[in-house]
Amino acid sequence: MKRKSALMKSTGIRAVLALAGALVVAPQFAFAGDLDEGKEIAFDRKKGNCLACHAIAGGDLPGNIGPELKNMKSRFPNKADLRAQIFDPTSRNPYTSMPPYGKHKIVSDAELDKIVEFIYSL
Fold it and tell me: What pTM does this model have?
């Protein structure tokens, strides 16, 4: 009986660890609605206002203060780094003119996540 119990515990632990590992390495997929909403927020002059400083494909009247937003997956292989940059760009460069969208609550966490999904898709 002890042997069976130990085997069940061992198998259960392995299953939990396998599931946890799958969750850690599983890629995050955006829903099409998130990309559309992210684009809408990013282009909204009262919210993300990314076009004030950046050229983005499909955007009207882009600014040229910041870099053109393209090839984002090669520039930010880790999506969390892109989110951190948008959340608080002053953490990497205290002299940046980019506002800290998350830190100053210019956009909500949910809106920030959608912006990140859109920008990361460029």
Answer: 0.71
Burial level of 19, CB count in 10 A (0-12/13-18/19+)? exposed
Amino acid at site 4: K
Contacts of 103 (CB under 8 A, 6+ apart): 87, 88, 90
- The Cβ-side half-sphere exposure at 122, using a 13 Å CA radius, reads 23
Task: For residue range 30-56, list pLDDT tens digits in order.
Answer: 566 778 999 999 999 998 899 999 999
- Residue 56: CB atoms within 10 A of its CB come to 18
Q: In the chain, which ranges are continuous DSSP H helix?
A: 2-25, 32-43, 72-75, 79-87, 109-120
The CA distances from residue 27 to 78, 81, 100, in Å, are: 11, 15, 26
